[in-house]
Amino acid sequence: MTKTLTITVNALTRVEGEGALHVQVNGDTIESVRLAIYEPPRFFEAFLRGRKIEEVPDITARICGICPVAYQMTSVHAIENALGIRISLGVRQLRRLLYCAEWIESHVLHIFMLNAPDFFDCHSGIELAEHFPDQVNMGLRMKKIGNGLLELLGGRAIHPVNVRIGGFYRLPTRDELARQLPDLRWALDAAVKSAHWIAGFDFPEFNIECELVAMKHASEYPMNEGEIASTRFPSIPVDRYEEYFGELQVQHSTALQSVRRDSQTPYFLGPLARLELNHGNLTPQAKKLFQDICPPLPLRNRFHSIIARIIEVVHAFEEAIAIIESYSPPSEPFTEYKSHASRGCAATEAPRGMIYHHYEIDDRGSVVSSKIVPPTSQNQLQIEADLREYLPRFLQESDETIASECEKLIRNYDPCISCSTHFLTLRLERT
Amino acid sequence: MNLLQPPPSKKRLGVFKFASCDGCQLSLLSCEDELLEVAGKIEIAHFLEASSEIKPGPYDIALVEGSITTPSDIERIRHIRQQSKTLVTIGACATSGGIQALRNWGDHEEFISCVYTNPAYIESLATSTAIANHVSVDFELRGCPIDRYQLLEVLTALIADRQPRTPQHSVCMECKRRGTVCLSITRALPCLGPVTQAGCGAICPAYDRACYGCFGPAAQANCPALSQHYLATGTPATKLVHALRNMNAGAEIFQIESDRLERGSPER
Description:
The complex is a heterodimer of chains A (about 425) and B (about 270).
Chain A: E1 5-9, E2 20-26, E3 29-36, H1 44-47, H2 56-61, H3 68-83, H4 89-115, H5 125-131, H6 133-154, E4 163-164, E5 167-168, H7 174-178, H8 181-199, E6 213-216, E7 227-230, H9 241-244, E8 245-248, E9 257-260, H10 271-278, H11 284-293, H12 305-325, E10 342-350, E11 353-361, E12 367-373, H13 375-390, H14 399-411, E13 426-430
Parallel strand pairs in A: 2-13
Antiparallel strand pairs in A: 1-13, 2-3, 4-5, 6-7, 8-9, 10-11, 11-12
Chain B: E1 11-17, H1 23-29, H2 32-41, E2 42-47, E3 59-65, H3 71-83, E4 84-90, H4 92-96, H5 108-115, E5 139-141, H6 148-159, H7 171-178, H8 183-187, H9 203-206, H10 223-232, H11 237-244, H12 252-263
Parallel strand pairs in B: 1-2, 1-3, 3-4, 4-5
Helix pairs in contact in B: 11-12
C-alpha cells in the first residue's frame, strides 16, 4: 500500500535568515530534495541602477547584516577594477584588517552560538553556555574583540560607514590601533585553546567527493584578491568567472542557484575550500594548528567546517596583530579618481565563501547594471546534493529526527539566507 | 525572600523577521557582555536565528525586524500582533520599509524581470512598507542597523514595565556632544544630520563623512529648509533625492521631501 505523508516541521533555525527544506520520499527512495528559499526578493540589482558609484558600498552593505564587509569590499574592488583605480599599499593592509575583523565576528558567532550547540544536542548557544560556561564566555569575548576592531576601522560593526571607493573616509591612528593589541593577543590564545576544544568534538563521518572552489593568492591567505582556484580544474582569473560559473532560476527558490557551466554540476565554497586550497599561506600558529588538529586532506567531511572556521579565526587574529604592529598610516585615506564609462568585476572571500560582483558604469559615474552572486546561493545546489546523500542514514528514524539531522548538516555551510531569503518551513513527504 | 509569594514569571520574548538583512536581530547577539544576563531575565520563546527551541505564543514582548513585501507577510504580522502584548519594531526596514522600499518608486514588474528570467515564479508586492502600516506598534526603535545599547534599554525597560527612553532629537546634538566639527558648515557637505534622529552616536561625521540618514527623520525635522540651504550652496537636487532615498526612503517626511525635490516644485 502506498501512503502519502506530508509533515510540516519547524522552520530552519540557527542560521542567518530563515529557510526551509522539502523532501519527498517514496519507500526507500528519495525522490527530491529542495532547499526552498522563499524570501521575497529585495531587488538590489534593480534599484542600484542610476545610483552614483559613491553610494554603492552603503547600499550593498544592506544586503547582509552578518557579512556587510564582504559586500562593501567586493563592490568597491569591482568598481575600482572598472575605473583602473590603484589603492595604496597601506589602504590594502587596512582592508585586510577590516576583513580579518569580519571573519572573526562572523566565524565566532557561528561557532559558539549556531554550530557548536549541535555537537551537544543543545538548542542554542545560551543553553550551551550552561554546560560549557568558560568556553562560551571565551567565545563571546573573542567576538567582542572582533567587533571592537570592526567598530574602530569601520565606525560600527554592522553596516560599517568608513568604506569608500579608493580607500577609507578616515584612517585610524597608530595609537588607536595599538590599543587593540593586548585584547587581540589575549584573543589569539583563546582562539588556539578553543580550537583544541573543538577538535575534540564527536564528528559524524560524512565524506563525499565534490568540487571545492575558493580564491587563491600567491603569497597570502585569500581575502580580497587572487585567482579562482578549484580542486578539479585549473585556476582562472576573476574576470572569467561568468564564463565558468552560471546561475539558474528554479521554481522553488527565489535565490538563483549556481552551477559550473560546462558540467552543470554544483560546487562547494567556504572555509573548508579555502583551507584545502590555501593552507600553505596560513600564519604560523594557524599553520601549526592545521598540522596538529586538522583531519588529513582532502577535506570533504562537511562537519569539519567548524575546525576550518576556528583555524581561520586564529589566522585572522594573528594577521590582525601583524598588520597593526607594522602599521604606519598611508599618506592619504583614499586615492582620488575620475569616473568614466566602464565595466569591472571582483570576487572576495566572505566568511561563508566566495562572493562575486560585476558593475557597468556610465560616463557620469552612475551604475548602469550590476550582478551580485552571494556565497549561499552558490552553495545551494551542493547543499541539496549533500542532503540527498545524507538522508538515507536517517530514513527509518522519526520525522523529527530526520528534520533535526538535516538542519545540523545545513548549519555546517553557515548559510546566510538573509542575503537572498527569509520565511521557510521544512516539509517531508513520504509516499 | 517572601516564600509565600510565587517567584515572578519571566516575560516571554519572540523575535520575528520579515524582509531584511538580519542585522538588527544580530545586534541582540552582539550584546556580548549582556547577552547571557539578559537571557537569564527573559524566556526566549521564539528566536529562530539564535535557538532551535520554538515555543508557541502568546508573547509578552515581540521584536519585529524587516518590512512587509508579500501578501503572506500581511497575514503573518497580523497573527504575530494577536499573539503579542507589546510589539516593538526594530530597525529601518520595520519602521520605514527599509532599503527595499526603493521599489516604491520603480516599476515592480520591470524590477522582477531585471533579476529573474522566470518572473512568474516570484510572488512579491509592488511596495515595501513598515510594520505600522499594517498593525499597531507599541514602540519603534530606529536605525539601520539599530544601536545595541538602545536595544538593551528597550529590553530592560519592557522587563521592568516602563517606557523605553530613546532620544527624539537630531544627530547634530550628538555631534556637538562628541565635539565633531560640523561638516555642513566647514566643508559644505550635504549632511543629513540636522533632520536625522539621534541614536547612532553621530558616527559618520566623526569618520569624516556626512550623515546619510540611516536612523530616519528626527521629530520635527524640517527637510525643506535643509534642502533650500544645500541647493543654495550648490548641491544638485538629484544628490539630495538620492540622499533621502536610502534605508529610510519610505519614512513619510523623507518621502515627501524627495518627491518634492524630484518634481522641482517650490518650497511649500
